[in-house]
Fold this sequence. Notes:
The complex is a heterodimer of chains A (about 100) and B (about 500). Chain A is of the alpha+beta class and about 100 residues long. In chain A, about 35% of the residues lie in helices and about 10% in strands. Chain A is built from 3 helices and 3 strands. In chain A, strands 2-3 form a two-stranded antiparallel ribbon. In chain A, helix 1 (about 5-15) crosses helix 2. The longest helix of chain A is centred in the first third of the chain and has 19 residues, at about 20-40. With about 500 residues, chain B is an alpha+beta fold. In chain B, helix 4 (about 245-260) links the parallel strand 13 and strand 14. Chain B is built from 16 helices and 17 strands. In chain B, strands 1, 2, 7, 8, 11, 12, 13, 14 and 15 form a 9-stranded mixed sheet that branches. A 3-stranded antiparallel sheet of chain B has the order 6-5-16, with no helix packed on it. In chain B, strands 4-17 form a two-stranded antiparallel sheet. Chain B has 3 domains: about 15-315, no CATH class; about 320-430, no CATH class; about 440-500, Arc Repressor Mutant, subunit A (Orthogonal Bundle), CATH 1.10.10.410. Chain B is about 40% helix and about 20% strand. Chains A and B meet through helix 1, strand 1, helix 3 and strand 3 of A and strand 3, helix 1, strand 9, strand 10 and strand 17 of B. Strand 3 of chain A pairs antiparallel with strand 10 of chain B.
Amino acid sequence: MSVDKNTVRKVARLARIAVPEERLGPLAGELNGILAWIEQLNEVDVDGVEAMTTPVAMTLPMREDVVTDGNIRDQVLANAPRSEDGFFVVPKVVE
Amino acid sequence: MADRKPYVISGRTGDWEVVMGLEVHAQVASNSKLFSGAATAFGNDPNTNVSLVDAAMPGMLPVINKFCVEQAVKTGLGINAKICNWSRFDRKNYFYPDLPQGYQISQFKSPIVGEGAIDVDADEGYTFTVGIERLHLEQDAGKSIHDLDPNATYVDLNRSGVALMEIVSRPDIRSPAEAAAYVKKLRSILIALGTCDGDMEKGNLRADVNVSVCRPGGYDHYKETGSFEKLGTRCEIKNVNSFRFIQMAAEFEARRQVDILEDGGKIDQETRLYNADKDETRSMRSKEDAHDYRYFPDPDLLPLELTGEYVASIRAKLPELPDQKRARFVKDYGLKEYDACVIASDAEKAAYFEAVAKGRDARLAANWVTQDLFGYLNKEGLELSQSPISAEQLGGLICLIADNTISGKIAKDVFQKMIATGDAAAKIVEREGLKQVTDTGAIEKVIDEVIAANPKQVQEIKDQRAAGHEKPKTLGWFVGQIMKASSGKANPAAVNEILTKKLGL
């Protein structure tokens, strides 16, 4: 598997990361290096080995359905560049 | 039983049919969110039902709500679906301000509930089956408010992270009316199970409606081969939150697609929004990369594993479902299918009916509940919970009819007076002297008077009988006069018997 400049541009856009045009080529090269390195794993024979979904031998912890959190609006909004009347205020989004 | 007929749109170039599949989002009726301990309560001040997990602060970890898992399993069992003993949560990545994580935790590859089926009764009287592809648990997003400021969007995260069950149907729905009937049935099941409150106005139950059109035969081809080749391209109408809008949006969308195809155009697979004020749908997400969700397993969450005993313990506690209730009403109370269906579709109505019917004439109770009471409530736009007549009071009225204290006709007046005064039926009957006269002596007296006062009509009856009429028409007129003379209180059966005798018929 390898990526080209267009794929890098698209992935960057999906992740909302600004990548200048001249960086796309070099980034594609770096990503291809990483992908090639990971692809070495394909050499391992895993026939008959059950897929491991987690390295920890435990089951999903669960909690009871009780309200234990919330009512911390000031903390929630503390880092917001702009807030008003308890709302986050962000640049206009139109659907 | 009526047959299922295809819903046909007549176009310039011939007929078209509709194929629909629905994704219903049902909010789990939990106190706290799917992965955080913040409240789910509706209507609180913005951003107060928000924990640092919901706000996606760095380092916060999700912990799943046990109750939500149980509700998903319960719902799966209620729609006859396979419960998956192993499921997993995935991240669905997309960018939107009301999704602070930048991804929604959902279940993509391995949902908690697999295939099931729901039988739905169409308004036209036939029954059809909608296959269920899956049910999975996922987080709701926050709410964006666009109209507070012309240059900004306001975001409230109170809903963010609330547990939803997404229930995905197969494309087994063949008309806009069937789509509404399907959601109605699903809603009644959810409410009976208690897993979702079904409140559509609050958005706690809403549907994404997938619509495509095809030529007649295209759907049969799909059913036979499983191939979509003769089906049209579908469009998805997002977040429709009333039965009426589901139907209207689907009708509009199908027509829109037919018009495009007949003009030689092609349908783009896209997401659309329904605008109820204008009764139209419009394209919602033009950027195709919005659909590139890059799902991958959420590394913060372990797989969700359920044991057979756990599922069995939930199955053992399942409440009676609408279909079972209906069957019981037919069997135990002798109700007609239609009445049983109307009553059993709603848990509250069913409970009311049973309270009225218990120990009384059940069919009579069903008539009064469905026709008189529901008729009145519908007319006044009232919910059953706002009924001015309690089940016990209506039961009291039915007792008076059953033991011949009052006639059915008088009972209608008493019913109106019960609504107006809130008094018990027996009290009204007593106060207004409405007791039926069964004393034959008193009835005879009235009949004699009426006969003596109307010799012309007596002659008419005799002529009619002589002309060979088994039931002379004028006889009915006499009964009416006698009932009127007795203020409706004479027992109709006694009147008939004595009158017939007196007239020598």
